[in-house]
Amino acid sequence: MKKEEKKILGIKIFTQNKKNTLEKIKKYLKKSSKFCHIISLNPENLIIAKDNMRFKKVIETAQIQIVDGFGIVLAARILGFDIFERYPGVDLMEDLINLSSEMSLRVLFIGGRLNLANKLSNCYQKKYPKAKFFGLKGILNIKNPKRKEEERIFSIISDFKPHLVFVAFGSPYQEMWIDFHKDKFKGCVVMGVGGGFDFLGGVVPRAPFFIRRLGFEWFFRLLVQPWRWKRQLRLIKFSWLVFLEFFNNYLKRKLKN
User: Fold this and answer.
1) Is 244 exposed, middle or buried (0-12, 13-18, 19+ CB in 10 A)?
2) Which residues pair with 66 in a beta bridge?
């Protein structure tokens, strides 16, 4: 199926539905020499990418994009196009972990809170004995990674040879770090998951299903983690910029007519 290219705030968005996304990932998993980078899109990421050309390039050149934030869906509709469906990163993580059992894959968790990656790997190893899981701590300061920290990570990757790698360093640093070291991830499907380990490990509760369906998961997270309020200011900026883009497009159409 040919992918459809659209733009929000000047950033390319490649729309695919859940079924096609999973099928594409399966194909990468069967091609052991290929590298696949999965990017989760949300309003906050697009605001960062608008001012960070390196991050923008990483988003636009990723092998797979998934629409994590409801704001992306809404913005697309306002700008006159539609995306197939929202596919939250946590949902994709769970689907891929289930898939790891079906395909007997090796899965690596990197980063997150202290020992959480290791706890998750032990938990899933008991639940899915057909797959192999490994968890290791990440980088103390992803803005200034130490050579020894990276050497340890890549040494384990070389020995373990994972099919799936989940990196929890936080955006946009995890995505740029993955892209910068993509030669180390040949044969891997790699996904930056932000706080995804917290959800899977039960450290942070996820919004009830009906709240997620309404698109207010961000508000639920704000109630649970009020320290995120400064980050939520990007939602206001995103909304305003989308409105300006809509208005500018409207004026261009009027001038043409």
Assistant:
1) exposed
2) 40
What does each C-alpha distance from 210 to 38, 70, 206, 214, 221 come to in angstroms?
26, 13, 11, 6, 14
CA–CA separation, 228 vs 217, rounded Å?
13
Neighbours of 19 (CB within 10 A): 11
Residue 2: burial class (beta carbons within 10 Å; 0-12, 13-18, 19+): exposed
Q: Which two tokens stand for residue 69?
A: 């934030």
- Token readout for 81 is 């196009």
pTM higher than 0.85: yes
Helices (H), 104-224: 116-127, 147-160, 173-180, 196-200, 209-214, 217-224
Contacts for 25 with CB less than 8 Å, ≥ 6 apart: 36, 38, 64, 96, 99, 189
Please give the average per-residue pLDDT across 51-59, as a whole number: 96
Distance spanning both ends of the chain, measured CA to CA? 34
If one counts every other C-beta atom within 10 angstroms of the C-beta of residue 238, the result is: 23
In eight-state DSSP terms, residue 34 is -
6: pLDDT confidence band, cut at 50, 70 and 90? confident
| Cα–Cα nearest to 221, from 237, 203, 236, 201 | 203
Residue whose C-alpha is closest to residue 158's, from 186, 136, 177, 126: 186
Query: Residues of 143-152 as b/e, b for ≥16 C-beta within 10 angstroms?
Result: eebeeeeeee
User: In this structure, are residues 157 and 132 in contact, taking their beta carbons and an 8 Å threshold?
Assistant: no
Q: Tell me if 45 sits within 8 A of 71, measured CB to CB.
A: no
Our CA angle for 23, 168, 82, nearest 5°, is: 45
Smallest CA-to-CA distance from 1 within 59, 62, 17 is with: 17
